[in-house]
Amino acid sequence: MRSLTLISLLLLSTLAQATVYKWIDKDGKVHYSDEPHPNAQIVEIKDKTLNQVALPAAQINPDTRPSFEEIRYSVNITSPEEEATIRDNNGEFEVIATITPEIKSQYLMVLKLDGKPIGPPQMGGIFKLTHVERGEHILIAEVMTQNGKVFASSSPRKIFLHQAALKPTPKKQPKSN
Fold first, then answer.
1. Number of neighbours of residue 68 by Cβ within 10 angstroms
2. How far, rounded to the nearest angstrom, does the alpha carbon of residue 61 sit from its chain's CA centroid?
C-alpha cells in the first residue's frame, strides 16, 4: 500500500512539473500550452511562485443604495378607515397596510391590535382578524427586517367593532292593574 501511495505521489509531482510552451500567432495573440508548437518557447516556472491578485480597495460610493435606516418609509393602514365602524357578529375583518416607497427586498409586517401583535410577522400587509371582541380598538402596522428590527410603523388607527346582541333584550311589559 505504501509503495502504491509513493508511486502516485511521484506521478503527481511529475505532472505538476510539466513543461509549458508559449507562442505568439500571426494575429499577435499569446498562447500557452503543455504541448510543443512551432516557434514556441519554453516558459520557466519557478518553484515557490505564488499567484496573487491585488484587488483595489473597496470604495464606498455615496450614491449606493441606502440601508433601511437611511430611508424614511411611510406605513399606512388603508383599510379600514379611521374611526370606521365594522359590523360583524363573529368579530372578523380584514386590515390592509402598505409601505412607501416600495421595498424590493424581503421584509416582514406585524399588525398590533390594542398594542398586542396579532399572529407572527408575515410577508405582505393583508391581515385577516378573527374573534375580535366588540368595542373600540387601536390598530398599528409595523414593518421589520428579517431579523426582527422594526424600521417603520403606521400611525394608530381607531376602529369600532359592533356585534348584534346574541340574546334580544326583553322589552318591559306594562304592568296591568
1. 16
2. 23
> Can you read off the three cell numbers belonging to residue 58?
473597496
Beta-carbon count within 10 A of 134 CB: 16
pLDDT in tens, 35-84: 888 888 888 776 665 556 666 666 655 555 555 557 788 999 999 999 99
The pairing of beta strand 84-87 with beta strand 74-79: unpaired
Beta bridge partners of 45: none
Torsion of CA 130, 131, 137, 143, to 10 degrees: -30
Nearest to residue 15, comparing CAs of 41, 34, 37? 34
Query: Rounded to 5 degrees, what are φ and ψ at 11?
Result: -65, -40
Q: How many beta carbons lie within 10 A of that of residue 34, not counting itself?
A: 9
DSSP summary character for residue 89: T
Task: Please state the pTM of the whole predicted model.
Answer: 0.55
Side chain identity at residue 122, one-letter code: Q
SS3 126: strand
Phi, psi of 173, deg, nearest 5: -85, 135
Rounded Cα distance between 136 and 96, Å, is: 18
State the Cα–Cα distance between residues 115 and 140, nearest whole angstrom. Answer: 8
